[in-house]
Amino acid sequence: MKKNARKQNAVTSKNAKLRIIGGDWRSRQLPIPEVEGLRPTPDRVRETVFNWLNFDVAGAHCADLFCGTGALGLEALSRGAASCTFVDANRSASQQLKNNLNTLNATNGEVHFTNALSYLDQENSRPLDIVFLDPPFRKGWLEQILPLLEEKKWLAQKALIYIERESENSPNFPSHWRLLKEKSAGQLTYALYERQAN
């Protein structure tokens, strides 16, 4: 998560760890690469998000776009998601995430080292039930990503979309997306939407 400019410029400590907070891998700690601006979504926020998702995670096909450490997708897999596709354009983050999936013996997670826009700008073979979106702030990513999710038919009919964004920016969400939950903490707003039939 990238809350502000100061934190975006921070470099993750060599000894930094990601702790999974629930599910089969609860309390497992995994290394995080030393990458500028790379921070997992905090435990408190993740706990809130997965309370929101509640029973929707088990059996779901997920994608963690701009995944960074993969905190959200790993949490989903730990809690019974059928699969998760991780997408990130940072080579070190992608490689560490592959290593962490191997450490966990997770065969239902796949990592794509690529730009999220490039990944979404292709035909998909299976609609996603849950999408996690935590792009870098103030780069205009959401305005480009949200239309692609619909145009390329990435979403299942009742898909859930979790989004982290800067509080001062509210992009144009598709009219058939219903806001289920939303919270703000300083410059961060995080929310859960449900896609309705259109």
Automatic annotation (TrEMBL):
SUPFAM superfamilies: S-adenosyl-L-methionine-dependent methyltransferases. CDD domains: AdoMet_MTases. It comes from the Bacteria. It catalyses: guanosine(966) in 16S rRNA + S-adenosyl-L-methionine = N(2)-methylguanosine(966) in 16S rRNA + S-adenosyl-L-homocysteine + H(+). GO terms for molecular function: 16S rRNA (guanine(966)-N(2))-methyltransferase activity; nucleic acid binding. PANTHER family: METHYLTRANSFERASE. This is Ribosomal RNA small subunit methyltransferase D. It comes from Marinomonas balearica.
